Each structure stands twice: as structure tokens, then as C-alpha cells.
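User: Reviewer 2 asked us to show a designed sequence for the structure in our supplementary figure. I'm pasting the C-alpha cells here. Could you produce the per-position amino acids so we can include them in the response letter?
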């Protein structure tokens, strides 16, 4: 196969949009952006700044070779995470963020078996209302890290009386495999000041503490409680330690 030739203007357009983030290992994270992304938010067009990132096994500062290799690697078979940034995220004295785990059923189809789709949209609304913030969309977190196919099997068990934690454990999984290290590294590359974290999950707070990232505060994100997800939400509180901040969960 003939070596791909990159047009000079293509390299010049992309080079300044790629940022290398070093990790504690020999791996590297490449952050590309910002890209203007107009989003339909309840009928109103809101313009976010969008970034995507890719982890590679070796540090390579030759961005031309990285771009060339993309064509020979089927990245559509892999999952990459991204982040939506709104407002003056780098310099603003206060900003809110959401680390959102992908949920194929809730985010895309609007499933009411969970609260993920609600949390995704509500966090975007909260960020716009606050004036500055970022939504990190973590693509390798489906089903708390067990993947879509395994999540589908867990759903079958849930339809037969298992709760979320019991279903995962019955399939040989731990309750939660998610890791937030890469997202926090990307956050540090975009902003050095403290943030307010939108979450009900104390493990996210602990991840920030371990990474030495200062948190200004926490914003709860409960809602969309229904007959379809009430047990799911109760299990989050009773078995996963999520922080209850609303009487809706009574």
C-alpha cells in the first residue's frame, strides 16, 4: 500500500488543534479541538466548544504521523471520549462540570429504566444556565464499564427480579469498573482552577481527591423518577452509596 501523503494545508489546519497530554505511564492522550458545536437544547441553539481525545500506547510528538495512521486504524471499532465546553472555561473563576458515562439506551433512545438521559440533558442545561462549564462524555463506561452486550444480559436479569448490583455480580462482574483518570487529565489541560462537580456519586469525588484536583463544591443531579426506574435509583443509594439529596427518593 502506498504511503499516504498529507497535504500541507491539512497538517497546518490540524497541528495547532492537537494537544499532547502526558500521563503517569508511557501512554499519551491526544486532545483535538476546540470545534464549534451548535446544539439543539430544548428548541434553542446553544454553541458549545467540542473536544475529543484518544489514548495511545506511546508518546509521539510527530502529529503528521499520528494523522496518517488514523486511516489505517478503524477507530469506529473503538470508543473515544469527548468533552463539550461552554463559556470561558479556562479563565472563569467558577465552573461546573459533569463526568457523564455513556448510556446507549438512556442517552440515545430515552429509556426510562435509568436516569442517564435526563442527567445528560439536565447537566447541559445547568452548564448553560451557570454560564460556564464542561460535559465530559465517557465512551468506555457503558453499563458501569461492563459493555453494551453484558448490560443487555443484565437487563434480562433485572426483568426477573434482580437489582442492578445483583445482576452484574451474577454475570461475574464487579459493581463498577469505571475509571476517571483520563477525564481528569483532560480537565487539567483545559482548566487549572477549581470546579463544581455535578454528581450524586461519591466515587467521582474520591477520584478528584486522589488526582489532586480541587473541587469547589458539589451539585446534585437527581430527577425523572418514575415507576420504571425507582428501584434502580434506590439501589444506587442503598448499594452503591450515592448521595441522596431529594425527597423524591422517599
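Assistant: Here is a per-position design you can include in the supplement:
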Amino acid at each position: 500500500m502506498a504511503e499516504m501523503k498529507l497535504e500541507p494545508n491539512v497538517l497546518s489546519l490540524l497541528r495547532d488543534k492537537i494537544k499532547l497530554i502526558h500521563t503517569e505511564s508511557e501512554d499519551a492522550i491526544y486532545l483535538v479541538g476546540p470545534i464549534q458545536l451548535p446544539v439543539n437544547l430544548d428548541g434553542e441553539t446553544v454553541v458549545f466548544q467540542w473536544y475529543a481525545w484518544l489514548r495511545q500506547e506511546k508518546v509521539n510528538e510527530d502529529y503528521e504521523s499520528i494523522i496518517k495512521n488514523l486511516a489505517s486504524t478503524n477507530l469506529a471499532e473503538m470508543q473515544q471520549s469527548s468533552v463539550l465546553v461552554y463559556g470561558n472555561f479556562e479563565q472563569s473563576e467558577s465552573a461546573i462540570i459533569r463526568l457523564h458515562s455513556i448510556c446507549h439506551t438512556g442517552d440515545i433512545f430515552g429509556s426510562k429504566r435509568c436516569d442517564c438521559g435526563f442527567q445528560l440533558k439536565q447537566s447541559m442545561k445547568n452548564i448553560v444556565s451557570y454560564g460556564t462549564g464542561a460535559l465530559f462524555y465517557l465512551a468506555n463506561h457503558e453499563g458501569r464499564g461492563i459493555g453494551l452486550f453484558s448490560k443487555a444480559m443484565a437487563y434480562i436479569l433485572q426483568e426477573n427480579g434482580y437489582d442492578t448490583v445483583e445482576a452484574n455480580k451474577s454475570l461475574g462482574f464487579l459493581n463498577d469498573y469505571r475509571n476517571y483518570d483520563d477525564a481528569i487529565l483532560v480537565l487539567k489541560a483545559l482548566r487549572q482552577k477549581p470546579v463544581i462537580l455535578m454528581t450524586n456519586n461519591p466515587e467521582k469525588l474520591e477520584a478528584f481527591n486522589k488526582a489532586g484536583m480541587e473541587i469547589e463544591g458539589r451539585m446534585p443531579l437527581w430527577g425523572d423518577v418514575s415507576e420504571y426506574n425507582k428501584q434502580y435509583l434506590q439501589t444506587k443509594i442503598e448499594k452503591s452509596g450515592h448521595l441522596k439529596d431529594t425527597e423524591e427518593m422517599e
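For the response letter, you might also mention the following. The beta strands are 18-22, 28-41, 44-56, 81-86, 96-101, 133-138, 195-198, 215-219. The chain has one domain: 11-69+77-141+178-249.
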